[in-house]
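debug: dumping io for the single-chain case to check the tokenizer round-trip. Nothing else runs in this session.
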Amino acid sequence: MKQAVWVIVANPVSGKGRALDRSKKLKNSLEKKGLIAVEVNANSFEENILSLTRAISTHSLKGILIVGGDGLVNNVVNHLYNLNVEIPISVVPEGTGNDFARTCGTYGLSDDEILNLILGQEPRAMDLLLVNGRVCVQIAATGFDAQVNRRANSLKWLRGKGKYVLAMLQEISRLKKTSYRIVLDGREQVFDAIFVALANSPSYGGGMRISPDSKPNDGIAEIAILHPVNRLELLRVFPLVFSGKHVNHKKFRRYSASTGRLEAQTSVYADGEDFGELPIDFQVLPEAIKVWWRQ
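debug: decoded output
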């Protein structure tokens, strides 16, 4: 019979080493409770995935604690999806934006509070987005937002929302509209926009509530669209995104769909990861993953 264990996957360089420290502390805390924990914290993504695969094949996993940011969450969830295994996850935020942790309610929690959550409650089902065959847990951004994400990823010395604010200010001189063709549940639209974002959850970029009413368990994606505005107007509206009040702007539109296609000459970043160029086809995968989710 396979042993029942907890697996802790950490990015050793995330948070300037803080993720590795938290991983070790979580392991010690679980072992003090008489539980078995295995750490996965290799220096490369490939090695981590191999170690995680071995743990899945060797043990009966109680759950996976992901110590890092949205990129690590995306990598682990995609791997679980490709393996077609259902293992509950929880995230211990030590990344740049930590938006998945915000969605799950673990942002700002101590290690003890997170352990109390996973040991005291049952995991809950959460939807995923499938974007050109790859899983997205939060938001897939295109157009100007994808350019900002690319720039933010190059700012290694900054964390949190300040990283994305600076990236936006650096990219705004290149602001231009993009021509889109989108099909949402069979309904076609053609228009120009600054960006189009597919949202499974409210925020990205360290707490920017681009889709404040999105819920990760309602079976639909919200499509957030900003139609063309000039640079000054974008700078005026941008601060409102942290409260979600930007949704009242006359150039902002929201739609919902469970399947769709986006066509444009631009790129897409999902959960902060480069997902390539459009066109993309997407669909909602209802209740596709179990998550310890605090509300």
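debug: round-trip ok. Residues 64 and 89 are 5 Å apart (CA to CA).
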